[in-house]
Structure formats: structure tokens, C-alpha cells
From TrEMBL:
<keyword id="KW-1133">Transmembrane helix</keyword>
<dbReference type="InterPro" id="IPR036757">
    <property type="entry name" value="TFR-like_dimer_dom_sf"/>
</dbReference>
<dbReference type="GO" id="GO:0033572">
    <property type="term" value="P:transferrin transport"/>
</dbReference>
<dbReference type="InterPro" id="IPR046450">
    <property type="entry name" value="PA_dom_sf"/>
</dbReference>
<keyword id="KW-0472">Membrane</keyword>
<keyword id="KW-0325">Glycoprotein</keyword>
<dbReference type="InterPro" id="IPR039373">
    <property type="entry name" value="Peptidase_M28B"/>
</dbReference>
<feature type="transmembrane region" description="Helical">
    <location>
        <begin position="67"/>
        <end position="90"/>
    </location>
</feature>
<feature type="domain" description="Peptidase M28">
    <location>
        <begin position="404"/>
        <end position="584"/>
    </location>
</feature>
<feature type="region of interest" description="Disordered">
    <location>
        <begin position="1"/>
        <end position="28"/>
    </location>
</feature>
<dbReference type="Pfam" id="PF04389">
    <property type="entry name" value="Peptidase_M28"/>
</dbReference>
<keyword id="KW-0812">Transmembrane</keyword>
<protein>
    <submittedName>
        <fullName>Transferrin receptor protein 2-like</fullName>
    </submittedName>
</protein>
<keyword id="KW-0735">Signal-anchor</keyword>
<dbReference type="GO" id="GO:0004998">
    <property type="term" value="F:transferrin receptor activity"/>
</dbReference>
<dbReference type="GO" id="GO:0140298">
    <property type="term" value="P:endocytic iron import into cell"/>
</dbReference>
<feature type="domain" description="PA">
    <location>
        <begin position="227"/>
        <end position="292"/>
    </location>
</feature>
Length: 782
């Protein structure tokens, strides 16, 4: 045993000596360590301790296992410590990380945001940043400055407001600021000859002058004089004129008296009256539609509401092309200019006229609330002799230099694609709602996004902030700019948000939008607190009213967003907060002041402005950062499906005339498949691939433009959009015409219907082909 122990120990000692043999750290001279001398103490006899080689090996194995365990534990401890340190450091760079669904893609190519400290910024952080920098008091202060006095285009007050806005934008962190100027022809009241109204006898001799408000007028009315009987036409809608024809009321050569409202603009009322053969239109605010008790925030009975009557937008003397000051164009004019007279009148003047009418009693529902008026239709007057009314309009045309003001923040990845936010700047009166609200919101959003830039916000796409001139005359400044860039705007503009008249109350939110943008509103109203109901989101209140889709409505003619979609082919949206119980009656009057708006809102102007700014800001954030543009390209499939259903109801009548709706059905199917195929292709693609993402976004951006009919003249029919436009080429015109097969078959025009069907079908088919992508994806039977 001793031999074995001695051998074992000597082996260990030898191994240790060999292990110590090596190279000195600083030299390279090898040295040998002397062997260690071990002395063994002999064991006493009788001792119970016994050693053998097996026991020694067992103890060494146990020591090695313990060492391995200790090493493993030490490694885990070091790894855990390092992980925790790294996690804490990362969280420091991302202070407001949200849920996984709120994350903007992390790669630069996907539009991720990086703070100046180098951390990744999430959408939740961008939302908080937007809310942090929006200031209610700034919205109120800007609104008060802009609405100090009347500031129409070309006036010294208007130019002063323009200079102030330009200076403020130049003081922000913008990449570019500039102005875009146009000479446009605008119409104003004559300074020497006021517009007049008289009672006259059968020979035309003036019997009595009826005083008019000298400041009230309808821009772009025809000028001259007109004489005739007076016919009450309710709101002057198409259905109102049709009912008058059914009742046999003599319209030709008469002067219409129409109420403000009825969801039709002044221009539409005048156009329909002109079609019906009338020679003039007088438009008044009825107490049933517009509050008229000054003690309860209403108009006084002598107040008038002014509005332009050009059935179109832009300068009516350069239709379809821009009125640049350095370019000469041949003399022409818009087909939407009226050839009859138009003038606003007060409720008192309307009462004086309508209380003396004779003739057929009004249809049910036409009775207003004018005092001393029993509703009859005219055109004659009670009393002896034959009396008529004579009206005279002496408005004058004037060339005015308009200045649109621009500021931009360039996108970091797609700078040539931009989201546009705009507002009207001019106003006939103080214009607190008409122009002040939109301008205040525009300036506050520009300032907020500028501050966000300084704190790590870098948009993927560019942001464009625009103050438009000439808005009171039919969005002249905006339309002239659109006309100048019509051939390329659909390749550049992602969407347009109009801030005009956004605050008319604080109760009910209405959204007027292109269908492509409608889905954006749901995500935004989830995030924004209702200005009147603290602690509740706008969505929670909207859901009680039947859901968010009920607040989304089609764009209307006088909307600041309408021409962008119907004329320019750019998806557009406009928001309004209104009152549930009462309306704000002062728009387009000299009484549209900040004080009256604050009174209506009971001091909540700042909070309502903040809510609107947040809504628009959140939608702009999403459009400027999503890798793939969040526009719903399938939305128009549902609209065409409704037409298909209507055509199917008339299949028998159409076939009996040799007509077939199969063309439309086929085009609708092609468009639906193209839209779904595009969605599937995006879903199954690597959208981090910048080239592929840009191809998809280009196709998405052009969808609205595809629906501008290429088969009608932009000069004669400026609103060429087949869904949102106006004219015989539109879906609504086609649907109205086909309905005549049942309601009035003798009025159905087969040749006209064939043309309508062809124009609409080929526009829809062209949109389907373009959305499909390359030509080999369109017609491939194999």
C-alpha cells in the first residue's frame, strides 16, 4: 500500500513540477522549477485508517464536480448581471415604450425614430410628445390675433395677417418656407352703386324700395337688373323645384326666395334656380334653421349671410389651369358661373316679401318660422294691382394678388411623398370660425411638429403646412395651386387635411372624408379625450351613437377638402365639432367673432381646439411613419357593389332596350380582385425591402387619382371624380338616371345612359388595371 501511495504522490508531485515549467512573461527564457520533496509519516500499528488508490481517485472526482458546479453558478451570475445592466440601459434610451402593437419598425428603412441620445422611439412616445407640446393657450391667442377685424384678400388687414403668419413659420424649425402667388379675379360689392330691391308695378315703375344690408352680397353673381314675380322655393334643392313643377307653379321669369341650409350651398341653389328658368334668387336665414334671438346667441333679424355662388372652385376666369401672374391666357370663364342674379337678404326682408304672397299653399314641411307669414308659394302678391319685385346687383370684378404661404418638414426616407395640412386665411368679416380657427390650429400643429423635431422626431415622409388665400371665394388659392401641379400631385401628395371651420361647437364630431382615409379616424378617436366629457375618449361617446362609421360622411362642395379629392385626385378629410342642440349661426356674417364662439363653447375653446389638433396630429403621425400607407384600397368596391345591386333591379327593363349592366359587373369584379390581391401581396412580402415598399405605396397613392375620369374635360367638368365629383359621368348621375326606368320611364334617355355607363365603366376598369400593377398581371389567361 505504501508503494502505491508513494507512487501516486510522486506522480502528483512530478506533474506539478512539469506544470510549472514554462516561459517567463517578459523574457522567453525557460526555467525549471525544482521538484518538491515530500516526506511521509509512517502510520501506527492498529490504526483503523486505511488508504488505497480507489479512495483517492473518488475524492478527486468529487472535487472536480464541485468545481464545475461553482463555475456554472458563477457564469450564470455574471450573465444575469450583464443582462440586467443591458436591459436597464436600453430602457433608459426608450423612456415611454408602448405595447408591441405600438412599435414603429426598428430599422431605419422602416421609419424607426431615433432620439438624439440614440434610443429607439416608439409610437406611444410620439403620441405623448405630440400631446406634451400642443398648447391650448397658443390656439386661443392665435385665433384672437387673426380675427381682430375683417381681412379679405388683397386688403391691408389681409396682407398684415399674411406677413405675421409667414414670419412665425420662418421662426420655426422648418426646412423650407415660401409663398406661392396668383392673380385671381374676385368679385366685391360696388363702392358707388349698392345692390337694391324694389316693389314695382306692372309697368316697371318703382313703388317702394326695400332696404338691403350694404355689406351682404353673393360673390360671382351675375350683374344687372331682373324683374318678376316671387316664388318661395323652400331650400332650393332639386327635389323642391321638382315639387313646384308638380304643383304647377309658374317658375319661368320669376325670382326665387330660398332659405339658407338644406345641405345645399348658395351656388347649388342658384344653379338649380337657373335651370328651372328663374331670373334671380334671394337667400335668407329662416329662424327655423338659424337662431335669431340675439339674447340667446343668435342673429338679429336684419343680419344677412353672404356666400359665393360659383358652382366650382378656383378662379372662374381660368378654369382648369392656374392663374399665374407671369402667364397670359385667352379669355374664358367657368361653366359654373351663374347667368342670373343672386343676393342675400335678412329675415325681415324675407318676411316682408313672403307675407304678401298669394297662390298655392306650401307643401307639408316647407313652413318656416318667419313672423306674420302664412306659407304660400306665389308668384303673385295680394292687394290691388299687379305688383312684382325688381332686384339690381352691381358687384364689380377686381384682379387681386393672392399669396399662399407654405412651410415644410422634409421626410428622411421618402421626402418626395408628403402629407398636406392646410387652412383658409382670409375672411369677409372677423371670421373667427371661417378662417381664424383653422389658421390657429395650423400654426399650433406646425409649432408642435417643429418642437418634436428638436426632440428626436424624424418623419419618414414630408409634412407640408399651408395657409391658403382667397378661401371665401371658393377655395381660390388652394385650387389655383392644385391646377398648377395637377399632372404630378397624385405622385407626391399622400393626403390632405383641411382645418377650416373645425370648431362650430364642442358636442358632436363629424368627419367629411374620402373613403380611403376613413379607417384612420377610428384609431385617432381612441386616443383623444372628448373636450366636453372629461375622462372619456371621443370613441366611447361615438359608440353610444351607433359606432364610429356613422360620423364619417362624404365630402361636400364648399368644403376646404373637396377640390383636393374631386378635382386633384388626392385623398382628403375635414373635421367639424358642432353643437347637438343648437348651431353656431354667425359663419359668413360680420358677427363671426371670438367672443361669440367662446360664449357658445362656455369657455372651452382651448380644449376643443386641442382635441381637434390631437386628432389631426395623430393621423398625420401615422401617415408619415407607417412603412406601408394605411389607406383602404378596397373601400370603393363596396360603393360599386351598391350600384351593381341597383342595376340588377332594373335588369329586365335594360335588356328590353338592348342594354346590359354586365360591363359594370365585370369592371367591379376586376377592381375588387386587384385591391384584394394588392393587400395579400403586401401581407406576404418583406416590407422592410425599401424598393418593394415604395412600389406598393406608389400604387396605393394613385388610387384616388385613378377615379378622375379621363373622358371629360377638366375645363368644362372640373370635378371629374366618378364617386365624389359632379357631372353626368358620376356614379350618382348614373344611379339617378337608371331610377327613371320605374319612376318616369318617358324621361329615360337611352343614348345618354349608354354614354354614362361607358364613361363610368371604363374609368372603373382603368382603375382596376392600374391597381393590378404591371401589364402582365392584368390580362393573362394562362
Amino acid at each position: 500500500m505504501m508503494d502505491s501511495v508513494t507512487g501516486l504522490m510522486s506522480g502528483v508531485a512530478g506533474g506539478g513540477a512539469q506544470a510549472n515549467e514554462g516561459v517567463e512573461e517578459g523574457g522567453g527564457v525557460r526555467r525549471r522549477v525544482p521538484p518538491v520533496e515530500l516526506k511521509l509519516v509512517p502510520l501506527e500499528e492498529g490504526s483503523e485508517v486505511t488508504l488505497n488508490s480507489d479512495m483517492m481517485i473518488l475524492h478527486r472526482q468529487m472535487d472536480r464536480r464541485k468545481a464545475a458546479v461553482y463555475l456554472t453558478l458563477s457564469g450564470l451570475l455574471i450573465f444575469t448581471t450583464a443582462f440586467l445592466l443591458g436591459y436597464v440601459a436600453f430602457r433608459g434610451m426608450c423612456r415611454l415604450c408602448g405595447n408591441e402593437g405600438d412599435l414603429i419598425p426598428l430599422s431605419d428603412a422602416a421609419g424607426a425614430q431615433h432620439s438624439p441620445e440614440g434610443g429607439v422611439m416608439y409610437m406611444a412616445e410620439l403620441r405623448e410628445m405630440l400631446k406634451k407640446y400642443l398648447k391650448e393657450e397658443r390656439i386661443e391667442n392665435t385665433l384672437r390675433r387673426v380675427s381682430r377685424a375683417s381681412h379679405p384678400p388683397g386688403s391691408s388687414e389681409g396682407n398684415a395677417v399674411a406677413r405675421e403668419i409667414l414670419q412665425n413659420l420662418q421662426n420655426l424649425r422648418m426646412d423650407h418656407t415660401w409663398t406661392d402667388s396668383h392673380y385671381a379675379t374676385l368679385q366685391f360689392p360696388s363702392r358707388t352703386k349698392p345692390n337694391m330691391l324694389w316693389f314695382v308695378d306692372s309697368e316697371g315703375a318703382e313703388l317702394e324700395e326695400i332696404p338691403l344690408d350694404s355689406e351682404g352680397y353673393c360673390a360671382y353673381s351675375a350683374t344687372g337688373t331682373a324683374t318678376g314675380g316671387v316664388v318661395y322655393v323652400n331650400y332650393g334643392r332639386r327635389e323642391d323645384f321638382e315639387q313646384l313643377r308638380v304643383l304647377g307653379v309658374a317658375l319661368n321669369g320669376s325670382i326665387a326666395v330660398a332659405r339658407v341650409g338644406g345641405s345645399v350651398s348658395f351656388a347649388e341653389k342658384v344653379w338649380l334656380a337657373q335651370e328651372a328658368g328663374l331670373v334671380g334668387v334671394l337667400i335668407y336665414p329662416d329662424p327655423a334653421d338659424v337662431p335669431q334671438d340675439p339674447r340667446r346667441l343668435g342673429l338679429h333679424s336684419n343680419a344677412v349671410i353672404s356666400e359665393h355662388v360659383h358652382l366650382g372652385s378656383g378662379d372662374p376666369f381660368t378654369p382648369g389651369f392656374p392663374s399665374f401672374n407671369h402667364t397670359q391666357f385667352p379669355s374664358t370663364q367657368s361653366s359654373g358661373l351663374p347667368i342670373i342674379l343672386a343676393q342675400p337678404i335678412s329675415a325681415n326682408v324675407a318676411s316682408k316679401l313672403l307675407s304678401q304672397l298669394s297662390g298655392t299653399a306650401c307643401p307639408r314641411g316647407w313652413q318656416g318660422r318667419l313672423p306674420y307669414v302664412q306659407c304660400v308659394l306665389g308668384p303673385g302678391f295680394t292687394g290691388p294691382g299687379e305688383r312684382r319685385v325688381k332686384m339690381a346687383v352691381y358687384n364689380t370684378m377686381k384682379p387681386v394678388l393672392l399669396n399662399n404661404i407654405f412651410a415644410s418638414i422634409e421626410g428622411k426616407i421618402e421626402p418626395d411623398h408628403y402629407i398636406i395640412i392646410g387652412a383658409q386665411r382670409d375672411s369677409w368679416g372677423p371670421g373667427a370660425v371661417k378662417s381664424g380657427v383653422g389658421t390657429a390650429l395650423l400654426m399650433e400643429l406646425a409649432r408642435t411638429f417643429s418642437n418634436m423635431l428638436e426632440n428626436g422626431f424624424y418623419p419618414r415622409r414630408s409634412l407640408l403646412f399651408v395657409s391658403w388665400d382667397g378661401g371665401d371665394f371658393g377655395n381660390v388659392g388652394a385650387t389655383e395651386w392644385l391646377e398648377g401641379y395637377l399632372t404630378m400631385l397624385h405622385l407626391k401628395a399622400v393626403a390632405y387635411f383641411s382645418l377650416d371651420q373645425a370648431i362650430l361647437g364642442d358636442d358632436v364630431l363629424s368627419v367629411y372624408s374620402s373613403p380611403l382615409l376613413a379607417d384612420l379616424i377610428e384609431g385617432a378617436i381612441k386616443q383623444v379625450e372628448h373636450p366636453k366629457h372629461t375622462g372619456q375618449s371621443i370613441l366611447s361617446l361615438v359608440q353610444r351613437q351607433g359606432g364610429w362609421r356613422n360620423i364619417v360622411k362624404p365630402l361636400y362642395l364648399n368644403s376646404g377638402a373637396y377640390s383636393f379629392t374631386a378635382f386633384g385626385g388626392v385623398p382628403a378629410m375635414q373635421l367639424h365639432f358642432t353643437e347637438d342642440a343648437r348651431s353656431y349661426p354667425f359663419v359668413n356674417t360680420q358677427l363671426d367673432s371670438v367672443g361669440r364662439l367662446q360664449e357658445l363653447l362656455q369657455g372651452r375653446l382651448g380644449s376643443v381646439g386641442r382635441a381637434v389638433a390631437e386628432l389631426v396630429g395623430l393621423m398625420v403621425l401615422k401617415l408619415s411613419h407607417d412603412q406601408i400607407l394605411p389607406l383602404d384600397v378596397t373601400c370603393y368596391s363596396n360603393t360599386v357593389q351598391q350600384l351593381s345591386s341597383k342595376l340588377s333591379q332594373h335588369t329586365a327593363q335594360l335588356q328590353s332596350r338592348g342594354l346590359s349592366p354586365l360591363w359594370v359587373f365585370s369592371a367591379r369584379g376586376d377592381y375588387s380582385r386587384a385591391a384584394k390581391n394588392l393587400q395579400e401581396a403586401i401581407k406576404n412580402s418583406d416590407i422592410q425591402d425599401e424598393r418593394l415598399a415604395r412600389l406598393y405605396n406608389t400604387r396605393i397613392m394613385r388610387v384616388e387619382y385613378y377615379f378622375l375620369s379621363q373622358y371629360v374635360s377638366v375645363v368644362e367638368t372640373p370635378f371629374r371624380h366618378v364617386f365624389n365629383g359632379r357631372g353626368d359621368h358620376t356614379l350618382s348621375a348614373l344611379a339617378d338616371h337608371v331610377s327613371l326606368l320605374r319612376s318616369a320611364p318617358h324621361l329615360f334617355n337611352e343614348a345618354r345612359f349608354r354614354r354614362q355607363l361607358a364613361l363610368f365603366t371604363w374609368t372603373l376598369q382603368g382603375a382596376a388595371n392600374a391597381l393590378s400593377g404591371d401589364v402582365w398581371n392584368i390580362d393573362n389567361p394562362l
